[in-house]
Amino acid sequence: xxxxxxxxxxGVEKTASQEEIKKAFRKLARKYHPDVAEDKEAAEGKFxxxxxAYEVLGTPEKRQKYDSLGPDWQQGGxxxxxxxxxxxxxxxTQQFEGTGFSDFFEQLFGAQSRPRAxxxxxxxxxxxxxSRPIRGHDTHADILVSLREVQHGAERKLxxxxxxxxxxxxxxxTPSIRFPKGVKEGQLIRCAGMGEPGFQGGPAGDLFxxxxxxxxxxxxxxxxxxxxxxPLAPWEAVLGAQVAIRDLDSEFQIRVPAGSEDGTELRLRxxxxxxxxxxxQGDMYARIRIVVPSTCNDEEKKHWEALAKSSSFNPRKGS
Length: 319
Known about the structure:
Blueprint: H1 6-10, H2 18-32, H3 40-57, H4 60-69, E1 93-97, H5 103-109, E2 112-114, H6 122-127, E3 138-145, H7 147-152, E4 154-157, E5 159-164, E6 169-173, E7 176-179, E8 188-191, E9 207-213, E10 220-222, E11 225-232, H8 234-239, E12 241-246, E13 251-256, E14 265-268, E15 284-290, H9 298-310
Parallel strand pairs: 3-9, 11-15
Antiparallel strand pairs: 1-5, 2-3, 4-7, 5-6, 8-9, 10-11, 12-13, 14-15
Helix pairs in contact: 2-3
C-alpha cells in the first residue's frame, strides 16, 4: 500500500498553519463538492480524498501521528497487518471496507480493539487454553457520514474480515448499518456481535462505529444548526436586498434587512439538520460578510466618488 501525501492533496506545505490548511480545504471543497461540480461522479472521489486529507491534517492529534510516521509509516504502527486492520496482543486483526475512508487511512487510524471489563492481554491469552467460553473484545472504528445522510438517514454496507492467526480462522461479514436521521458527530453506532469473535463457544464482541461528519465547503455544523457565510455587496447591506441562499436540499430567497452590518447573523428557523425527533430540524444561520469590489471601472469610480462627497456617514464616529 502506497503512502498518501495529504499535504500534496490539499496543496499546502508541511509547515502550513491550521488556518492555511482550513483555507486550502475550503477552496478545493467548493470546487469538487458533488453538490456544485459539473462532473458529479468524478468529483465524488476527489472530494472524499480532500475530505480525508483534511480529517487528518485538520485534527492536531491525527496530524501529529501522520507526521511522526511519514513515508516510512510501515516501519511502525500497524506494520505487517492487512488493510484497515488493527492488531491486538493476541494477533487478531479486523479489516474494514465501507467506512468512507481509504485503505491507507484505515491502516493508520482504523479499527482499534478495546478490552472487556476486567482487562486483557496475556491473561486473555492464557484463557484461550481453558475450556470456558470467552467473549471476544469490542472493536472501535471511525465512519464518515455526509450531512445529507444526517438529514435523511442512510444505510451503509460494510465488509468486515476477521482473522485470528492463533486459530487460523478467517470470517467475513457484510452487515448493513442503518444511520438514523439526526445522527451526530461522535455518536456511537453499536453493531452487536461484529467485534472480535469469541472463543470456546463464547459470544463475539461488539463493533462501535464513531461517527465523523464529512466536512462541507459551505456549512459549519454546531449541534443541529448549520452556519454559512452570506456575501453581500455594500449597497445590498445598506439598502436591503432579496437574495438567493441554499440549505442542504434546495435554494430559496430571503430578505436582507436594510442597514445590515458585517457579521450579523440571520436566523432561518427549521432549515438546519434533522434532530432525529420526528420531522424536527435545527436552524440555519446566515452570517453576513460584506464584500468590497477589488476593482472598478471609470464609471463606477465616479459613482463611488460622488457618494463619498455626498454621504454624511463616518464609520470612525459611528454615524
